[in-house]
Amino acid sequence: MKIDKQHIEDTNQKSLDSHRASFGYIANRLTQKGIEVDDVVQKLADFQVAIPSWALGAGGTRFGRFGFQGEPRTLKEKIDDVGAIHALTQTAGAISLHIPWDLPEDYKAIKQLAASHSIVFDAVNSNTFQDPKNAAVSYRYGSLSHTDEAVRQHAVEHNKKVIEIGNELGSKSLTVWLADGASFPGQTNFQTALNQTQKSLREIYITLPGDWRLFIEYKPYEPNFYSTVIQDWGTSFMLANECGEKAFTLVDLGHHLPNTNIEQIVSTLMLKGKLGGFHFNDSKYGDDDLTVGSIKPYALFLIFNALVYGMENNPQNPYPAWMIDASHNIKDPLEDIIQSLEAIQEAYAKALLVDQKLLNDAQQDHDVAMCQEILQEAYRTDVRPLLEKSRLQHGGALHPIKAYRSLQVRKRLIDERGMDSVASGL
Ligand code: PSV
Ligand code: MN
Ligand code: MN
């Protein structure tokens, strides 16, 4: 299924006058404040976010799964779905694969299909949290941290294989997220588990191609409920440092205990040049994997403020890899991702409006009230017309969700794939 550019243009026609009026108004106001509106619009266009292959079908919980009709059955169909999102939003120019869920059969055909949608392959993800098919080992009690050398070796080999697959596709990074940990006090020895993990990561790290990066994700709990081997950013940072200069920490917004100051973590990592990647989602309680910006939009803005500051002031930190990491249980996954992309762009645009010079002056003067005014002045600005402009300039939809519905994308996917199709996985 492919979305016709002409269709998008036709749907845009209906909203063009209203867009022009609202864009003119905001562009005027921002210009009067000395903001280069064209620069902001260009930065929005350049900000591309990878879509994880596992977020295109319904996720489910441990209580069950309510499938979504027309789910992608193959890797090709997943790429088509990301292509549809990208055509509408012009913000999703990459897909992130999970191995072995997304084993490509014909590399050439897969690459051609992705290119036809203007999509590149972002980080590849290894899976050592489910038992490999027909394997002699089990990850029940861990993978890279396992007490048994044979299990660790199996997990290391899997990661090497994932790098090879990614290399064929043009990926440049490997993301490692471990489920390793313990559900009960006394179950594992913390020091042994950490040491084994470090050794295993190092073995993977030394096989990375020269221009690749290793992203190490952390998470405080789940699926293990007492301890996680890579529990927090400090542990990930330490492991990345011990691996070497191509290893980085990856921040997943949902992987923090409630009320953690994530913007401060982002600032610290960028200062030290170790923020490699970012997984966007939102949550109220834990790793809820909800639509970005649906629960704590101000926190998202503050995080983007730290990211924008870091991108402008920390040349020691490479440009981070951006990805959505969400799970859709109720909404149409594609609509949910479109909403997430809008929220990401909105927070980014608002952060770009923060007057950093004025903020720095106010900080130096210890004018605390003014510091807050400056941040909230940016946050309260309705930046949506800037997002519209950026999409319009690149052939995207002025209103992606409206266009998605008027183009009947879901209906077309159901016609093509059937009512009962289930997203492919292990
Ligand atoms: C599990 O929490 C998780 O959502 C991690 O965030 C990973 O990035 C993702 O699964 C895929 O392995
Ligand atoms: Mn994640
Ligand atoms: Mn997660």
How is this structure best described in words?
By secondary structure, this protein is α/β, with parallel strands linked by helices. The chain has one domain: Alpha-Beta Barrel (TIM Barrel), CATH 3.20.20.150. It has 15 helices and twelve strands. The chain has helices at 5-32, 37-46, 75-89, 107-116, 149-169, 190-205, 233-243, 262-271, 297-313, 333-353, 356-364, 368-379, 384-393, 400-406, 409-417, and strands spanning 50-52, 94-96, 98-99, 120-121, 124-126, 173-176, 181-182, 213-217, 227-228, 247-252, 275-280, 321-324. Strand 1 (50-52), helix 3 and strand 2 form a beta-alpha-beta unit. Helix 8 packs parallel to helix 9 (297-313). The longest helix has 28 residues, at 5-32. It is globular, with a radius of gyration of 22 Å. The model has no long low-confidence stretch (mean pLDDT 97). Alpha-D-psicofuranose binds at residues 125, 177, 217, 219, 252, 279, 287, 325.
